[in-house]
Amino acid sequence: MALETTFIQEKLSQKFGNNVLNFKMKRDIFSLEATSSTIHEVIQTLKEDESLNFHFLTDLTGIHFPDNDENHQFAVVYQLHNWIENVRIRVKTFLPDPAAVETVTDLFLCANWMEREAWDFFGIDFKGHPQLKRILNMDEMVSHPMRKEFPMEDSGRTDKDDRFFGRTPVNN
Predict the structure, then answer these.
(1) Cβ neighbours for 73, distance < 8 A, ≥ 6 positions apart
(2) Which domains does the chain have, with CATH numbers?
(3) Which of 53, 99, 117, 147 is most buried by a 10 A CB count?
């Protein structure tokens, strides 16, 4: 029997109640939100429950939403894959600034580099991470360049316009 989205929703809702919400199909991937306090346990359930079998972490990334309210400034998005049924799922959790969430490196070893990248570019702290340090930027950097408060290009350049990339230029 194929793994149905209604089954996943019922299973998670029974276990986590109001801590999982906004279930929907979005671009052919079943998506949901989980509270930051339960995200680790939700991911663990998706992986370890034999009726769910989401054993592969495809991707983990951060997103910055500076226009959202103070409790939803950042999001961490987890993409998981059940290879047996060929089903994908996206789980998102929102965080305030400063952003911090529990690491999932104890569940997926591949999360190590993904979490380091999210910290490097967005400043999201993954509590319990074994070696949270810069992975692509220089160690001397004090900023996190994918945050929207940083301009995309040198302000002296005239061939780039931040408005085209969803950023409002800073008026000096």
Answers:
(1) 64, 65, 66, 94, 95, 96, 97, 99
(2) 5-11+18-111 (3.30.460.80)
(3) 99
Q: pLDDT per position in the chain (172 positions), as tens?
A: 578 999 999 999 999 999 999 999 988 899 999 999 999 999 999 999 999 999 999 999 999 999 999 989 999 999 999 999 999 999 999 999 899 999 999 999 999 999 999 999 999 999 999 999 988 888 888 788 888 877 666 666 666 666 766 666 555 4
Task: Render the burial of 69-96: b for 16+ CB within 10 Å, e for the rest.
Answer: eeeebbbbbbbbbbeeeebbbbbbbbbe
